[in-house]
Amino acid sequence: MPGPRLRRRLIGGVLVLIGAMVLLAVLGVLYVLTLPPVGDAEARVAAVLAAHGAPDQGPPPPLRLGEAVVAVEDEHFYSNFLVNIFDGAGRAALATLHTSGDPGGSTIAQQLAKQLYPESGGLEGTLHDIGLAVKLSLRYSKHQILVMYLNAVYYGNGYWGERAAAEGYFGVTPGHLSWGEAAMLAGLPQAPSAYDPLHHPAAAKARQDHVLDQLVTNHYITAATARAAKAQVLPFRVHH
Known about the structure:
Blueprint: H1 4-34, H2 41-51, H3 63-73, H4 81-97, H5 108-116, H6 122-139, H7 142-152, H8 162-170, H9 179-186, H10 201-217, H11 223-231
């Protein structure tokens, strides 16, 4: 049993820690309140699509593509939003310490915030994205956020949004993508040029395999389904 002095020190340490956490929480709330409103997020997505002449898929998100994106980009997406935000903030903070550029490692809500409300990079930009992700998560449902993300991101080769990508690469609507096709598209937004399946097929294939492995890890599909998807020859409409 610890002595009275040690107990006092432990209690004092715990109180200091609690006080620091409360102070950080208050500062976080105050910072979020200084950020712009996000009520125009859906209008901003529509503007992105219109600017690139891309069609709007609209809700609901296509099942396979949505699950593939969640599995590879943000496996805690459907958790309590605070758990999701803290997870993304931790990953982004660690990444920021190791790079002077884009920190990466963000949640889907953070990536959506970055796409719709661009800010400078580095730690300041990361905090901006995290704060706006909180506001987006409080204002919109998970499905709404996922729909906006799938529609707002770039899939390479001039394709903005899920519908343009599905139709452009495979000639199908997003809801009719196979698991192999959905995994290929889900892997593109992180680095559309590096993973371009038409110009860098080996890198794109490796990325697709990773997405399928994540789908298995997160219990969206079985290992047998993943093997079949990896073996599928994808019917790209545009060839080298």
